[in-house]
Amino acid sequence: MNRAALLARESFVELGARARAKALLDTGTFRELAGPFDGLTSPWLERQGVVPQGDDGVIVAKGLIDGHPAVVLAIEGAFQGGSLGEVGGAKIAGALELAAEDNRHGIPVRAVILFETGGVRLQEANLGLAAIAEIHAAIVDLRRYQPVIGVIAGQVGCFGGMSIAAGLCSALVVTREARLGLNGPAVIEQEAGIAEYDSRDRPFIWSFTGGEQRLATGLADRFVDDDSAAIRATVAALVAQPPAAVHRSDRHEDYLRRLGAYDPAAQAEPATVRQLYAGDQQ
C-alpha cells in the first residue's frame, strides 16, 4: 500500500465496537437493539466491585449490507477484555436465534460477528460458558440458511470458547493484527512455563496465532489490511454468497488425523504448524 493510500484509510482496529458495526452497515440503516439505555447490565459485576456497562460490552445492530438484511454483533474489547457473561452472551445468542427464525419465515437475514474477546468472563463463570454454548448452537443453526461471517481485527484477538464460535462461522476474516487461539498466551505460559510459551514475546505469539499464520493454516479464509473500507468490502462479498456446503467444523476428522500425526515431544515452530495443516484445504 502506497503512502497516500495508507494515510487515507480509516483503521478498523482503532474503532470501538459500535463504530465497527456502523462501518459495516449501509449508511443510514444502523439500528441498535438492546442498547445501553435499555438497562441490560450484568447483575454480577457490581457485587464483585466491577462497574458494569450499559450494553454489557456487546453491540447488536440490524441494518443492510449492500442491500442484504443483516445483524452485526460486535464485542467491545475495551470492556473487561471483551469477556462474555450472562447478558452479553444472551444478546449474541438471541440475535442469532432470531435471525434463524427470520430465515424460516422467508426473511434472509445474514449475521456478522466482530470478535474482540478473551472468552468467558471469569466473574460469571458457568453462566458465561452456558451463553457461549448457546452461541455455538445458534451459529450452526443459522449457517444452514445464510452465511455467518466472523471478523477478527485486533487488538484483543479471539480466545477461549469464542475461538470455537469463530471456527464455526461460514467464513472468517482476519487482519495482520488479529490473533486466534483456544488459550491465550498468558494462560499457556502459566500452565506450561515460560520456556514453552513466552507471553511477552510478541513476534513469537503472532507467528503462531496471528492472522497471517491462521490464513496459511486454513483456519481463516480472508486476510485484509486494517482498513475499514477493505474490511467492509470483504464482508459484503461474503454475505452475498450462498450458504456453504461444507464448513470447517465438518472436517473435524481430518484435523484430528493431522494432529494425531504430530509428535508433541518436539518443540513446535510456526513452520511446523503450517506443514501440519498443509494439504487439500477446502
UniProtKB/TrEMBL annotation:
User: What species was this sequence derived from?
Assistant: Cupriavidus necator
Residues covered by the CoA carboxyltransferase N-terminal domain = 1-254
* One GO-annotated biological process of the protein: carbohydrate metabolic process
UniProt name for this protein:
Biotin-independent malonate decarboxylase subunit beta
What are the transmembrane regions? none
A Pfam family matched in the record: Carboxyl_trans
Superkingdom, according to UniProt? Bacteria
* InterPro entries, alphabetized: AcCoA_carboxyl_beta, ClpP/crotonase-like_dom_sf, COA_CT_N, Malonate_beta
GO molecular function annotations of the record:
acetyl-CoA carboxylase activity; carboxy-lyase activity; transferase activity
List UniProt keywords, sorted A-Z: Transferase
